[in-house]
Amino acid sequence: MSADRTHTVVDSPMGPLTLVATDGVLAGLYMEGQRHRPPQETFGAPDASPFAEVVEQLAAYFAGRRTVFDLPMTLTGTPFQQHVWAALRRIPHGETITYGQLADQIGRPAAVRAVGLANGKNPIGIIVPCHRVVGSTGGLVGYGGGLDRKRRLLDFEREISGGTLF
After folding, report:
1. Which of 53, 54, 116, 127 lies 20 to 30 angstroms, CA to CA, from 12?
2. CA 73, CA 123: separation in Å to the nearest integer?
């Protein structure tokens, strides 16, 4: 039996976001022009009904009222990717870590390059905060949504948290 996939597009300060659900559970959040964005035809039929809570939490995030997402998600990837994506969800709002620190956190200190590749294939951007991972010197590197969006997300989170990221 094949999975039922649906999608909707919502506006955001980062531009239009395509939300994809598999069997009614969030499985993708993609930006326009995003690297590793699956083909549109894989997103299923347009249907906004599975996304009410996702849209509400995204709106609260962009309004500065939410710093943690609490949503059911289906992240499809290799066991290693799953491990990296789980670690991403533990990076606090308003903070950044390096790819090396992330590799250390998952117990794979020599796997910095693989961590970067897994980070880049994160299927649920923003909510699974891959934008909070920076280069070894703290510089902005490697964001599938583009470095401009990464900077805007980090600046926004820094402003909300009152901290400094760099």
Report:
1. 116
2. 10
Q: Which of 127, 130, 153, 154 is catalytic?
A: 130
**H or E segment and range at residue 133:** strand 133-134
Please name the residue that has the structure tokens 């949504």: 145
User: % helix / strand / coil in the chain, to the nearest 5?
Assistant: 35, 15, 45
For residue 101, give the nearest of 125, 134, 150 by alpha carbon.
134
Q: Is 51 a catalytic residue?
A: no
152's CB contacts (< 8 A; 6+ apart) are 13, 14
Burial degree of 107 (CB within 10 A; 0-12, 13-18, 19+): exposed
pLDDT in tens, 30-70: 999 888 899 999 999 999 999 999 999 999 999 999 999 99
Q: What is the pTM of this model?
A: 0.90
3-class secondary-structure state, position 55: helix
Q: Cα 152 vs. chain centroid, distance in angstroms? A: 14
- Cα separation, 9 vs 48, in Å, equals 8
Contact yes or no for 158/114 (Cβ under 8 A): no
